[in-house]
Design brief:
599 residues, 30% helix, OB fold (Dihydrolipoamide Acetyltransferase, E2P), Rossmann fold, Alpha-Beta Plaits, methyltransferase, single chain, S-adenosyl-L-methionine, EC 2.1.1.35
């Protein structure tokens, strides 16, 4: 959500001056690609070290060495693939020096480690400009993509052709996954003989289906303030923003939200955010709409507050509130208004905090005939009509019975849990965002569903405990049938969650729903690996895969895969029979968690 626009012609001579900055403390000239280090704000690049001679290693085991054994408080680990070195960033010089003294000469896995201070990474935008000579050359030599090309590249294609293209892409992805799994687990071949891919199911809604949109505040190629989509990434040297009025997948209400906020920003005395120097204030706008007939519209204004005094911030919030309480055009009116502080997050901060300014605190939407309350930061399927298809297929594949227990991992506002509830004995859900759990509990009560329980915390902290609760609570002689359903963020599940699922022998069937099948393959392989110290329990093998087109006009597709254990028996085993560990009441308890990783 960043923006820069050159509004004046910059000569080569003046550009050479701009390319360098003077450090106000030392007086030394600093190249502009490192100018961000001089800002009065934290960046982990300041306290970075390089650790060499690591040999073959995994990020997980290296992180365990640093945090658990050496008790180092690092903020980030960066490691190029297939290399024997890594960069480790810290939050203070004291932590950096402690790491250097402990790691330099430390013996690990038969290797003697080498550690030294590392140079900060260059600002990617400034580096691109320097390589190109000047910003004008960048624009003249490379045509900028249109908003349609950047966000919905298949929109010029008939929908039937879009589905054919996606089907072909998913077939290739499944083929690659199967090949990789056979290499990883030599015993998998005989368990993959009946694995089938059933094609792509179409979305009932093709246009205007996105119920959540995150717009950037910036400038277009003519230097005008725009609220829309970025046409490229900052790392690639692109900061231009384009309007969304002509995009087919954005609903009219969301377009009105972007346009009305654009008008507000243009008239405000406060400025759009500029990533060069982190100047300005208006950074982004999230718009959530309802597919029901209520015309509900939630706006979340993302403000970079580091450049605002307390009185200025109060004024900005007041202006926002007054503007949206008075503006109304036809069927469009903001029914819920929030402020979000989107400055740099503090250590351990998972999300940027929000503050309710005006209107209702939530909006509502309907899936599978159930009414759902949605808070600003809670996960809810982007395509409401498509979610009806997606969830029905997940239920069909899972095939729950009257005595089944479903574990909804990454449950969000409880949409999957409540859709499954009438098909099984009970559903236990876990989600890392506490507000989403509050929504899930409200949604269960509001829909008169009493066989669902929800827990706030990290999934890997709860999976084993939930399985033990189900096992201990099942009378002797009664059948035990536990089905896990996971619908993780784009990055997939953390490997600790996969390890927890593998170790929970009571889970015999797993339905994995992925909005990014390319990245989810890592999890699928981990589910099917042979037993090891890290991945205990019998592997899961894929049985059926089906894609659901949740994102018409884009290249993205949702994928559902049913996995089963090698020896899938419904009768109760002695798994955890004597383990009477019960689940603590975590409904109002938030478990501290490491950052896992954007929607």
């Amino acid at each position: 959500m960043e923006q820069y626009s050159a509004e004046e012609e910059v000569t080569k001579e003046s550009q050479e001056v701009v390319d360098k900055k003077e450090d106000p403390n030392s007086g030394e000239v600093v190249p502009s690609e490192f100018g961000y280090l001089q800002r009065n704000e934290f960046t982990s690049e300041i306290y970075k070290i390089e650790v060499r001679n690591l040999g073959y290693f995994g990020i997980g085991e290296f992180k365990k060495l640093l945090k658990s054994k050496l008790k180092l408080d690092m903020s980030k680990i960066k490691s190029p693939q297939r290399k024997d070195f890594a960069f480790v960033c810290f939050r203070s010089q004291e932590d950096q020096e402690k790491a250097l003294s402990l790691l330099n000469g430390y013996k690990w896995k038969g290797k003697v480690l080498q550690a030294h201070i590392a140079k900060a990474s260059a600002d990617p935008l400034q580096r691109k400009r320097k390589e190109a000579g000047n910003a004008e050359d960048v624009e003249s030599n490379k045509r900028q993509r249109s908003s349609a090309e950047a966000t919905c590249p298949l929109s010029g294609m008939p929908y039937e052709d879009q589905l054919r293209q996606k089907d072909s892409s998913m077939k290739e992805l499944i083929k690659k996954f199967v090949g990789e799994l056979k290499k990883t687990n030599r015993d998998s071949a005989k368990n993959l003989e009946n694995f089938k891919y059933e094609g792509v199911l179409p979305s009932p809604a093709i246009d205007g289906y996105r119920n959540k949109n995150e717009f950037t505040v910036g400038k277009n190629g003519q230097g005008e303030v725009v609220v829309g989509f970025r046409l490229g990434s900052y790392a690639d040297g692109s900061v231009e923003v384009a309007e969304v009025e002509t995009l087919p997948h954005i609903p009219k209400a969301a377009k009105w939200g972007a346009k009305s906020f654009q008008n507000f920003v243009r008239k405000s005395r406060f400025e759009p955010f500029n990533p060069e120097g982190n100047a300005g204030h208006f950074k982004q706008l999230m718009v959530r709409t309802s597919s029901s007939n209520t015309n509900e519209l939630m706006l979340v204004a993302g403000i970079y507050s580091s450049n605002l005094s307390d009185s200025d911030l109060m004024e900005l919030k007041r202006d926002l509130k007054e503007y949206y309480e008075t503006i109304e055009e036809g069927d469009f009116k903001c029914s819920s208004l929030y402020y979000q502080d989107v400055k740099h997050r503090e250590a351990g901060q998972m999300v940027s905090p929000v503050e309710h300014l005006s209107g209702s605190t939530h909006i509502f939407d309907t899936i599978h005939g159930l009414n759902f309350r949605i808070s600003p930061l809670a996960f809810f399927q982007i395509n409401t009509a498509g979610a009806n298809v997606l969830y029905q297929k997940a239920i069909d594949l899972a095939a729950p019975k009257a005595h089944s227990t479903v574990l909804d991992i990454c449950c969000g506002t409880g949409t999957i849990a409540l859709a499954f509830a009438k098909h099984c004995k009970q559903v236990l859900g876990v989600e890392i965002i506490p507000d989403a759990i509050k929504d899930a509990e409200f949604n269960a009560e509001n829909n008169h569903i009493s066989n669902c329980k929800f827990y706030a915390g990290n999934a890997d902290d709860y999976i084993q405990s939930m399985v033990r609760e189900v096992t201990y609570g099942t009378p002797p002689g009664s059948p035990l049938n536990i089905i896990a359903v996971v619908d993780p963020p784009r990055a997939g599940l953390h490997n600790r969650s996969i390890a927890a699922i593998r170790a929970a022998e009571g889970i015999k069937r797993l339905v994995y729903i992925s909005c990014n099948p390319q990245r989810a393959q890592r999890n699928w392989i981990e589910l099917g690996r042979p037993q090891s110290k890290q991945y205990k329990g019998d592997p899961f093998y894929p049985v059926t895969a089906v894609a659901v087109d949740m994102f018409p006009h884009t290249s993205h597709t949702e994928m559902i895969i049913l996995f089963e254990r090698k020896n899938d028996v419904e009768e109760r085993t002695d798994v955890d029979r004597n383990q009477s560990t019960t689940l603590v009441d975590a409904g109002t308890t938030e478990i501290a968690a490491d950052t896992i990783g954007e929607t």
